[in-house]
């Protein structure tokens, strides 16, 4: 509610829904954390992921591999992200070819979510990618499954 004493623009300003801002903040923080960890973690012997600033190797977390004794479509993604974070694109490709577009999608979230938060704080409508926003995700899933079938199930790679 506005009073007669409020400036005219106050009545036109509408606060964005709280969940809109919260969701953007969550994605922004998560994406920044993933990119930051990719740049600070390291790999030992092409198989062990080391915690940032330590020599401590993190345990393997792939339950698919434990259960089925096969790599999953996302196997190697952590090591590949670390490789991209250190500028080693070839190693990233070897660990998981889908990692490069996935890393790009995660990195894209940082400026996109900052823009969304900026727009929300100014009472503007959020940016919309429309239906096109889902195509990269669908393409990524196809690439991830395709490289997995090619490498693991057919034995090429």
How would you concisely characterize the structure shown here?
With 157 residues, the chain is mainly alpha-helical. The protein has 7 helices and 2 strands; from the N terminus they run ααββααααα. The chain has one domain.
Characterization of the model:
With 157 residues, the protein is mainly alpha-helical. The chain has one domain (16-153). It contains 7 helices and 2 strands; from the N terminus they run ααββααααα. A hairpin with a 3-residue loop joins strand 1 and strand 2 (48-50). Helix 2 crosses helix 4 and helix 4 (77-85) runs antiparallel to helix 5. The protein is globular, with a radius of gyration of 21 Å.
Helix-strand pattern: HHEEHHHHH
Proportion of residues in helical segments: 55-70%
- Per DSSP, the total helix count is 7
**How is the main sheet built?**
2 strands, antiparallel
The structural class is mainly alpha
Distance between the termini: 65 Å
Kindly provide the radius of gyration, computed on alpha-carbon positions and rounded to a whole number of angstroms: 21 Å
The order of strands across the largest sheet is 1-2
**Structural domains: how many:** 1
Mean pLDDT: 84
Poorly predicted residue ranges: none
Number of strands: 2
């Amino acid at each position: 509610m506005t009073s007669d004493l409020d400036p005219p623009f106050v009545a036109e300003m509408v606060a964005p829904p709280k969940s809109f801002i919260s969701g953007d903040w969550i994605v922004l923080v998560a994406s920044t954390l993933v990119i930051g960890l990719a740049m600070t973690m390291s790999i030992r012997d092409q198989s062990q992921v080391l915690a940032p600033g330590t020599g401590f190797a993190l345990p393997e977390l792939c339950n698919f591999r434990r259960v089925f004794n096969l790599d999953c479509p996302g196997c190697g993604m952590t090591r590949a992200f670390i490789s991209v974070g250190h500028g080693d694109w070839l190693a990233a490709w070897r660990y998981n070819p889908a990692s490069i577009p996935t890393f790009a999608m995660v990195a894209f979230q940082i400026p996109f979510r900052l823009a969304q938060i900026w727009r929300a704080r100014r009472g503007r409508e959020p940016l919309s990618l429309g239906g096109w926003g889902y195509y990269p995700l669908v393409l990524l899933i196809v690439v991830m499954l395709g490289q997995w079938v090619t490498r693991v199930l057919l034995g090429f790679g």
